[in-house]
Amino acid sequence: MDRIFRVFIDTLNGNPDITALRSAMGDIAVAFELNCFAYLFVPQQADAETKLISNYPNAWTEHYLAEGYQQFDPVINKAARQSEPFQWGDDCWSEDLGASQLQLFDEASQFGIRSGFTIPIPDPKCRIATLTFTADKRHGQLNRCVERHQSLFRFVAVLFHSRASIRLAPNRHISGVQMSPREFECLEWAARGKSAWDIGAILGISRRTAAFHLDNARLKLGVKTISQAVAKLAASAHFVP
Fold it and tell me: Which is the most buried residue in 17, 67, 200, 211, by most CB within 10 A?
């Protein structure tokens, strides 16, 4: 587990693409002895497309999104109402489910998705973000796994979201200028009062590399100081203190 977790951290610090993110989280799911994971991201815009990174069978994810199941999925509905993680499955669901929701669970079970543990990820920059681990086993077995690793589950979810959300919502315009993922990320940390040294430590890069990205952002924005660049970010719609 320790080795897999170190690889996971290293992958996220390396500015991974979607394929690398999926592979890294898939390894974490295996380490927890769970068969699948799904990260769901719904941007703030009302007409925005729902984004998904998972190792579910392709046939299931394509069917799920094509049918718009995320609109009435009881797991997603519950995650939107609360911030605490929760378990779900056919033997522990306390709410009355409609015919469409029961059909959703029945179809999911045909792909080995019978119970799960969902972590809502609060983030004012999106409507919904969740990470779910699922198992082709009964609620009691999953419960033992959750009791043992719940704190680690939550940490992994927040860390994964910090990288995946950048890939899935790449709108990084400040004052009409497009930033690279690293430039935008470094500038966000600078806006939170972090020095180049701090940013390097947080992102797993050198102080010099962090300073390089900050300077690139400054030049793109046509300002003389990092503080002025931070002010432009703070005035944009993309920064949440």
Answer: 200
